[in-house]
Amino acid sequence: MAAFTCTSRPPVPLRSESRIASSPSASLSARRMFAVSPDSAGLRIRLSQSSSLLTSKVPRPRKGIVCEAQETTTDISIVNDTTWDSLVLKADGPVLVDFWAPWCGPCKMIDPLVNELAKEYTGKVKFYKLNTDDSPSTPSKYNVRSIPTIMIFVNGEKKDAIIGAVPRSTLASSIDKFLQ
């Protein structure tokens, strides 16, 4: 799973600010500028000037934002449509399944919490992650309409579902309900 970090870099202007700003026929939307950082692989950032700042000289943008993906490690096993029955439904004891997708911001927010809980409950609860883009049939069986969704199964039966990015305490209390 990738995490994103953003850093400031000087942008490269894509349009001539002076030509656009000095044109009497240029509309407000034409006076908006775009900037791209050389090492951002084409990430465009729209920079808008407020109407009070639009004069014959438009200030040059000073900074851009570059986001870079970084790999994060996780000890949580992956489950998919083909391994669902053997790993989740036929498991003894509680199983927590995190339904997620790589493009989902809230999924990335709760990923560290789920990883912490997996370490804390080692030997008591089995943790799995299911990528809803790669395995769409299992989420549709369980009516997963939004992600992140965390479901808890006990002896193959769905017992609880937590939808959205919730605090660690909410996840922990949901897990604790099903521990004997």
UniProtKB/TrEMBL annotation:
GO terms for molecular function: enzyme activator activity; protein-disulfide reductase activity. InterPro entries: Thioredoxin, Thioredoxin-like_sf, Thioredoxin_CS, Thioredoxin_domain. Transmembrane segments: none annotated. GO terms for cellular component: plastid. Residues 67-180 form the Thioredoxin domain. It is found in: Plastid. Its main location: plastid. Keywords: Disulfide bond, Electron transport, Redox-active center, Transit peptide, Transport. PANTHER family: GEO12009P1 (PTHR45663), THIOREDOXIN DOMAIN-CONTAINING PROTEIN (PTHR45663:SF29). This is Thioredoxin domain-containing protein.
